[in-house]
Amino acid sequence: MSALLAIYVIIESFDKARYLGHGLTTQLLIEYLLLKAPFLISEFMPIIVLIGASVYLVELSRHHEMVAIRAAGLGINKLLTPLLTVALLAAMFSFIIGEWVTPVTNQRLDTIEQVHIQKKEDGKHGVQWLKDGQRFFRLTPLANHQFALMMLETNTQGAWLKRVDAARATYAKRQWHLMDAHVSSPSLEQGMLLEHLDEMNISSAIGPETAEPPKPRHMQVAELNRYINNLNHAGLSSSSYTYALHRKFSAPLACLLMVILAAALCLNTGSRSGKASWGIVAAISLGLTFYVVGNAGHLLANSDRMPAAYAAWLPSIAFGGLALFLLLRREGH
């Protein structure tokens, strides 16, 4: 893990150094590198476990410890049990980071990327129009998740009943909180009634996230599940969110499969360095292939060429089956 993070810091520092002095400061660059670390740990944990377990098993083979285990009549489970325990702890650690850390760090990373590197305005997505029953909302994004809001309420025939203009508005818990609001409504006697309120609330199931879809990498399991249900209820595609939800579980659990794959490739009863080296090379190659297949599954899910849930579990299914086959064959089954 340390080696992986060190390689990343070197490569990313050279890549982002060209933006220094052009919107990116040294402090922001350091912050960017530190915030990217949790994502890398969560993303590459199965490969880290695979390589770590492979090196450990090669060392056991070189010191003839496998010969002693076989001579004592013990099975391979004596080695796999502690390794699987460590892999389970790594999986739990990876899940915790992916659930509670990376959604927060990814938001900040995207802000640095968009504002200081790509020179885009933070949170400026243009004017958004939303409809909630007979009410129409026009949102103009401001800073810090605030909006300038105009709401127009009509009857079923389309005649307007009320208009609300607010200088600032925020949305939370299915309510719009308006500040410095001007309310106008038609009146038979006066033509129009005007009212000014320092603050007011408008209940609405429609929030700004429905106009600008949230990114799956910014969401936790509960948020993903809720958003997928909302999309399915509206008859919209939820492939990218379904993939992200299943990936939350499939990626950490792949750590357990990587231990089995390492045992199948690197566990030998002899001490020949050539055979051990080929085992390490095969483990690293399959680890990189696992990562590539995972990215391919993401592309297939987003393009609706493969069911999203299956695409998320495809690398684990493929490499888990390969690992079990190789291990059973090595054990003579």
TrEMBL record:
A Pfam entry, by short name: LptF_LptG
GO CC terms, sorted: ATP-binding cassette (ABC) transporter complex
Record membrane topology: Multi-pass membrane protein
Residues that span the membrane, as ranges: 37-58, 79-98, 249-267, 279-301, 307-328
Subcellular location as annotated: Cell membrane
GO biological process, one term: lipopolysaccharide transport
Keyword Kinase: no
PANTHER family hit by this protein: LIPOPOLYSACCHARIDE EXPORT SYSTEM PERMEASE PROTEIN LPTG, SLR0882 PROTEIN-RELATED
Protein name: Lipopolysaccharide export system permease protein
Organism lineage: Bacteria, Pseudomonadati, Pseudomonadota, Candidatius Mariprofundia, Mariprofundales
